[in-house]
Amino acid sequence: MSTYTLDTSTSRANPTPAPMRRLTVPAIRGRKGGDPIVMLTAYTARMAQLLDPHCDLLLVGDSLGQVIYGLPTTIPVSLEMMCAHGAAVVRGSWHAVVAIDMPFGSYEANPAQAFESAARILKETGAAAVKLEGGEAMAETIAFLTRRGIPVIGHVGLTPQAVNVLGGYGARGRDKAEAAKIVADAKAVADAGSFAIVVEGVVEEIAIAVTRAAQCPVIGIGASAQCDGQVLVTEDMLGLFERTPRFVKRFDDLAARISAAAADYAAEVRDRAFPGAEQVYAALGQDPLDARS
Questions:
Q1: What's the pTM value of the predicted model, to 2 decimals?
Q2: Where in the chain do CATH 3.20.20.60 domains reside?
Q3: If you write DSSP's letter for every residue of 71-90 in order, what string do you get?
Q4: Which residues share a beta bridge with 57?
Q5: Superfamily of domain 2-252
Q6: pLDDT per residue over 68-89, tens digit each?
Q7: Are 255 and 237 within 8 A, CB to CB?
Q8: Which active-site residues does the annotation give?
Q9: What's the CA gap between 41 and 48, in Å, rounded?
């Protein structure tokens, strides 16, 4: 639970945490096979405030490239973008573990490059962990980071940063060879020290096999309810886009509600009904409700 105070200088509600400790990486790791882990993406302080009481993990995903910036893929996302949004999410949260995606090109060259990028992310944002994509090829890097005090979430299956190699965003693991590789990838990154793994866009049998094979929690997206937890892009879950991926359940139709509110606002402005007496400043000593007289 949290309490809220009103910042009267900006008229924005800022959270004041109730006395409590933020969840920790070991606490998340300890949820393997236990209570399902709730994870959603967040890119702004305000969204973090709203999501934080309900989530165990907040992911500042490089999906912000598409969701916030309108980019066609996550490939152009920069380290600077991730740090800026990551810091905002940390400022807006007090309960969930905040993890930040390492963007394409910031970690693949070698473990030393990955450490430099990850250290910058944690220093500039205050987040607790980073997430990186890749299986066995990234195991050495994950081990390098974790031995140096940087908690890592792995990511296997459909890896969006590899969209150019994969040829699209279709589900992975439809043939036996690829299925076996995904399971091997998950085991490799778990054994390397990942405290959790995201498995994305795989047929359900593979998601279940990955969950059983990995010693750390497996968080599904387009995977299976039998995973140790679930993650979605918040804007997809809220229905902010016309297209809904197959694996997403819309829990709201926020796009329609925002559009309706904007239409109401536009109509009142054009009719000169807004601002009304309640929204304008009266002369000193005058009742605001008499401002039109």
A1: 0.89
A2: 2-252
A3: -SSSTT--HHHHHHHHHHHH
A4: 39, 97
A5: Phosphoenolpyruvate-binding domains (3.20.20.60)
A6: 999 999 999 999 999 999 999 9
A7: no
A8: 200
A9: 9
